[in-house]
Amino acid sequence: MDWLHDFEEELRLVFQESRSIISKFPEPLNSQGISYLDHFNVFTTGSHKNYICYLLPFWFQNGYNLSPDDTRKMSMGNVFFMLYFFIQDDLIDNTDSAHAKLPLANLLYIEFLNIYRSYFAPYSPFWFSFNRYISQWADSVSHEKEQDYFLNDRVKIAHKASPLKLSSTSILLLSGNDSLVAQAEDLIDDVLLTLQMLDDYEDWEQDLAEDNYNCLLSLTRSQLPDDRKALTEGEVKDFIFTSSGLNAYAKIAQATHNKLTAYEINAPQLISFHLVLVRNLQHISAAIEAEKQILQSGGLYYWLSKNIKK
């Protein structure tokens, strides 16, 4: 099965129902919430695509015999929690917006709880996992700069998105596969790491300008001959385009993918999704290396390669 297109109709229902629920929020929180939802709606042109968030329950559905209705509810739960945590991220970056965003965040949080409270009793193991994932998120976002996770503790990069594991954990608990929860957590952490690595390649210039933590910048900094924390744009470009730094970066992602076969989790679309991420990094790296080879062959050859149709 295809990791995206086979679930398009189900995803439409997820976003339609989520939109319907948010539209019932009090004014103006309903319009603000719908605007947030549209910003992450996979079917909205120009939206930010957060595939793993709303597709993860569907990737676990067949392997663990979850009904279509329950799968959609789990996906909706992830959507509401995703929006809640994106608002938290916004508030961390800009505390001036708290007055406008905190009320909406709490309504989204309630909708998430409404979904999961219908499945799990107060003392279910699910809520212990809930507490742990929130703690992982809080620890990760609080210390990533000073602890340099990419060099020292890469799993904590994945922990920035730990709450989305609630859907996979809930599916495993509901299907009687409690013993697989820890494996699923590790698998998802591996996928989230590579996803962040790809995002960080795409965002490195903005992150450098805004002094945000970034995996690629961390790797670049580790190759400098001194202990400086500040990087210049030229140093990063030299690492990527001259020193084959992206090749080393892509090899880390490939090494992560090689680990995935050891997991006993029946979610092949999740593995396929990770392979797409790895290949994207590899293709970008290969394109850079090919461009270097052309340039090294001389100016005329470079002109011919760019101007003569194959």
Structural summary, described in words:
The chain has helices spanning 8-23, 29-40, 51-61, 68-93, 98-117, 125-147, 149-152, 155-158, 165-174, 181-210, 215-222, 233-242, 245-259, 268-296, 299-307. Helix 3 packs antiparallel against helix 4, helix 4 (68-93) packs antiparallel against helix 9 and helix 10 (181-210) packs antiparallel against helix 13. Helices cover 73% and strands 0% of the residues. The mean pLDDT is 92. It has 310 residues and is mainly α.
Short description:
The protein is mainly α and 310 residues long. Helix content is 73%, strand content 0%.
Outline the biggest β-sheet: none
**First-residue to last-residue Cα separation:** 35 Å
Overall 3D geometry? globular
Helix content: over 70%
Which class best fits the helix and strand makeup? mainly alpha
Q: What is the oligomeric state here?
A: single chain
Low-confidence stretches: none
Mean pLDDT: 92
Please compute the radius of gyration using only Cα atoms.
21 Å
Total count of strands: 0
- What amount of the residues lies in strands? under 5%
DSSP summary: helix tally: 15
> What is the element string, with H for helices and E for strands?
HHHHHHHHHHHHHHH
